[in-house]
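In the previous chapter we treated chains in isolation. Here, by contrast, the input contains three separate entities that must be folded as one system, with a combined length of 1439 residues.
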Amino acid sequence: MLIFILRRLGLMLLTAFVLTFIVFYLTNLPPNLEKLARSEGSVRMTDESVAAWIEQNGHGGSVLLRYGQWLGVVPGWTRVDDKGVPRGRCFAAGTDPTAAPRYCGILQGNWGHSTFFRGPVLPNLAEKLSATGWLMLWVMIVMIPSSLIIGVVAGMREGSRTDRVLSTFSIATTATPEYVSGVILVALLASPVTGLSPLLADWGLIEGKVLFQGAASPDRITFWSFTLPVMTIALYGIGYIARMTRASMTEVMTAQYIRTARLKGASFRQVVLKHALRNALIAPFTVIMLQFPWLLNGVVIVETLFNYKGFGWTLVQAAGNNDINLLLGCSVVAVFVVLVTQLISDIGYVFLNPRIRLS
Amino acid sequence: MPDWDPSQPILEIDHLSISFFTRLREIPAVMDFSCTVMAGEAMGLVGESGCGKSTVALAVMRELGKTGRITGGSIRFKGRDLTRMSDEELRHIRGSEIAMIYQEPMASLNPAMKIGAQLAEVPMIHSGMPKDEAWKLARQIVADVRLPDPDRIIHSYPHQLSGGQQQRIVIAMALMAKPALLILDEPTTALDVTVEAGIVDLVKELGEKYGTSMLFISHNLGLVLDVCDRICVMYSGEAVETGSVTEVFDKMRHPYTQALFRSIPLPGADKNARPLISIPGNFPLPHERPPGCNFGPRCDYFQKGRCDAADVPMFPVPGDDRHETRCLRWQEIDWDAPPAKRDVKERAPIGRVVLKMQDLKKYYAVSTGAFGGGARKVVKANETLSFEAHEGETLAIVGESGCGKSTFAKVLMGLETATSGSIMLFDENVQSTPIQKRNTDTVSSVQMVFQNPFDTLNPSMTVGRQIIRALEIFKYGKSDAERHQRMLELLDLVKLPRAFADRMPRQLSGGQKQRVGIARAFAGGAKVVVADEPVSALDVSVQAAVTDLLMDIQRENRTTLLFISHDLSIVRYLSDRVMVMYLGHVMEMGTTDQVFSPPYHPYTEALLSAVPIADTHVTRKRIVLEGDIPSAMNPPPGCPFQTRCRWKSQVPGGLCEREVPPVQTLAEGHQIKCHLSREVLATMEPVIRIAAE
Amino acid sequence: MEDLTYTAILGRVIAQFLPVWIALVVTFAVSIAFKRRLGLYGKLFDSPVGMIGFGIVMFWVFTALLADHIITFDPYLQISGMKNKPMGTVLANAAEGQYSHFLFGGDHLARDVFSRMVMGAREVLKIAPAATLFAFMVGITLGLPAGYFGGRLDTGLSFLANLVLAFPVILLFYLLVTPEIRQTGIPVVLAALLFLFPIIFLTVLLNARFFTDPMKRNLYVGAVLIIGAWAYSGLAFNADPLGVWTMSPNMLNVFVSVVFVNAPTVFRIVRGIVMDLKSRDYVAAGQTRGEGPWYIMLWEILPNARGPLIVDFCLRIGYTTILLGTLGFFGLGVAPDSPDWGSTIDDGRKTLSMFPHAALVPALALMSLVLGLNLLADGLREESLRD
């Protein structure tokens, strides 16, 4: 078991290195750097001065070397510019280079300077990440129980009317990406001109013009502002997980050991709760964990749609403003989240399944 | 249920009819079925697959699924009609009064629950027994079904046990509530014969100990003879004959029962002098049953206008105890007349050596542990295998699971290369030549017939196309037309209509698919054919036809047939020489007569004793082996069979546990791998005795 | 002339789709008449769910094909005074021969939402099925040997597949679909790589089957290679001498990215099925008569994997549609005034709370197409299991 976890960890680290390198390479493409030079320097720079700027700011040389510096396993660059001021990766221009550490990559906690936030990447990113954390917490609270219940109830009696209704609902929600469900929910519940809100306002049932707010902010988490973004992300996941749970449940319900349990004289309740549930939930567990990459998508779309200043919003801003360090930081976080959930899913699967655990 | 009188039948099925309803039509599965089981009686339900025997069993449990429905008749258990019971009443009967044992023990146990919990659940549901008491009872019953170390077993999960142990657990589960009726649905089909023998003994013993009545469903007549008092033979949804076991076996009064017995290889049958007689035609599909007698179209005694006029009722056979038959002409037929058409065939001469294996070894390196880590281990799938096979000869390779017979086939075919040793095929050493490097002639002259008829043909290619592809690969013929012609001839060879060329495999029955598989194997004029259990998945009546076909083609082409099987009856019937394997070792080899008569290798002796024989004149010595077959990953030291051998004490000094026995040659061509001295071997008695008629 | 009521809008929209209705009725009538002879496709018409799904999908397919006859305005035309006008607004001063109303209202640039939605179908269906097909070619060509041979090859390919799958899709799009990346030529390199797979696939497929008959083999493989090289030069390098095969750099970038994102999942599915099927006896029968591995993979295993693959193909077109919408929503890889559904939703969401129709119309269109594909896949799955 320990060997298994260690192997998975090793593989995960390898994946992380490869992925971050790809991201580093793609964000530091020459055209991106030129764009950065023009936005930091001046728009009307000549091609020569752009090249010089890139060289001066440590973006020249081999990609591998720069990746090493960014990671913190290669000493940060230092040079003296035309004016004789020493510059380097690990210290601000004008400070004493000898006092600065030799290595300053993300491993040392130096995630670089964000041109968008006009400040260091790490604290800004951490703040946005915590905002997204709240959003995700509520998404999980809504999504996991409801999807599992829907899936189990639908799969319990395959082909029944309940099953048909719930399955149709699940299919419909998986066919609705976040940018569609978000638009529909806002139009239905948060628009002063269409949907429910004008009706409710007319009848005097709500005080403001709209039932739910069409925008959200991490500073003020209320039921009225959070419902729509949470529902938008959760809906897609509910459908998906519910379908997986249902498939797994129907398969288990036709298994021979369920027949054995029934022919032992166990009641339907006992059969479902004691015999079917545990076996049926092994597969969805993996699915829930592997949903994280997709949830990240949802987060980006919903935060853009509801103007919620969290991680997804930051990612969009970083990409849109060619903020290389911020984008790199976002990527590291995203890749890390995905890999960790994969690891948890692998290990959890083994723990849930005695057939694998004990062989 | 206090108002039930024990002298009354415990189970009384009366004119039961069951149908399955699909979107298109109603499919009757069981029609007009009646049978009675008295207290303490064991009733055998026999028939080929699809005859409705399992449906009857499930109907007794009222477990027919969403599509199945009882359309008529009644099932009375202890006088109460099960067909009219509410779900709640049924629930109290299931598991406590009637329990069931299933075909696949692994699938029948919940993989995520401990054995103890699954057992203890039964009394907890039915008598509200407290948990720790129920676990204590579980432990006791586990000991009762003779499982070693019950404390460890009740705390393990199903996958940690072997197949035989799992089946014992399923039996234990059924006994937890001391039911009055036990339904066993092919309980040993998935197990090896030596393991099966142990289970059968256990079932019989427990039945007597607890006085439980049994409904025993099986396709194996020999097994029914071993276990049951009474028998009911089913054909195409109907009971055709019922009575006490000895009467039905010795004085059958239905043509189907008679045909069934004539098509199974009993001791005394011989492929040349007394070949088996297969039942002509095919089993009718449920919605295509003929009018009148269902067996009519395949029956030798069929009379047009009479047998197909109206449904046939059951007739009592006077003089015998509750013996009934569903045949209009049962009084007119001379039941003792010998079969009319038994064409005696000439014995094929045996020619030169075509295949010679010398000290063949095949080892696999596998990694243990579930997560890819762990130590690497060597599995010795084949250990010093030496033999030769002659032209026109049938060499049977006998053994149970894990004996290495499939690995041997793979090595011979060139799908794997041997670790060491030589394989001489027509004076050419092919030992280390993988199949891609063999020339077309070699490849086409060694072919294989596979076990599972449902798997042997590609489901998305027509039958003709699959045979033509083999011809293309074997570079037969110059044009497509020539190959097409040859394909039709091959269909003729395996006695299939030429129209089958355009059919898809799913439109064929199991036996027909197996014939196509044979045609494909002989497409390149194969000289050596490896038949890996070619008939074990087929019904008995079809088995005879397919083995006969193989024999005929062999006689004509002078093919060398390597017949891999676990079924000793069929091996005795068709093979010239026999090789018995156990955990990768050849334990015994010799002519069929030598192997089937003493002195035996102790393993052969046990194997012979374990195979049930459907003949009341045969008496067998019961030798039940302890435990299960050891895993090939972890074989015992010394002699591989020493853990289960009953003769071990006859070898002094614990030699069996230390050294692999040497090969002794007992007679010309008869060798065994055993430490027993010749003197001890000479004292062995025959396992099977046929009483004089 | 007055603004239209909702009933009138509905009536006019239905009338506008007349060519589509005719095509649908013909398709259904023919299919149902011959359903017993049409295999799995025919069986689809036994399942209500499958039929509904198929109907919705074909509705959009015909809409895309016949879009020119359905639209009421040029989707790029801006008409003054129609900015953000609600559904059914009449044109203030319609020119001669011009349609009298904006059926689904006007967007923030005073264009006709209805016509843009219809044209959007064409934009989506131009890419989604083709990209999915390419992803399948790549996934199958790599998944078959990975599952069949196992070992190092499998480990390596699975690692690569997992690598791509570990990227959050949006991040990958933000990195891969940018004007800057087009300057570096990376999309062309990727296209050159990915577009090779269909040619390899078909060549190996035909060679494995016909190598016993060199005449036929040379003919078929030669034809594939010539046509393949021709299309390849045009699609990947935009260098088709005849100018038949061509793809704009924008579209190439989007296309390649979508294929790149989808292929690893297909790879995993194919690999799983192959691992299951390779232990079958008919595979062993092929091996024992000396068939090459590619024949066994492509002709013995692949045809028997078609059920789950067809089902996944339908689901995956839906998924690709969602991905394309996502790209449009973030304005990646599309022209700013493109009528594709993703971009129109993005345009519309800025005025969402006051004028929801501009975003709602393409959103519902996209949802119905994906729903149709999902239902179709469900129907196919149900019917293919029923054998």
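Chain C touches chain A through 48 residues (CB under 8 Å). The first helix of chain C runs from residue 6 to 16. Compare these points with the single-chain example from earlier in the chapter.
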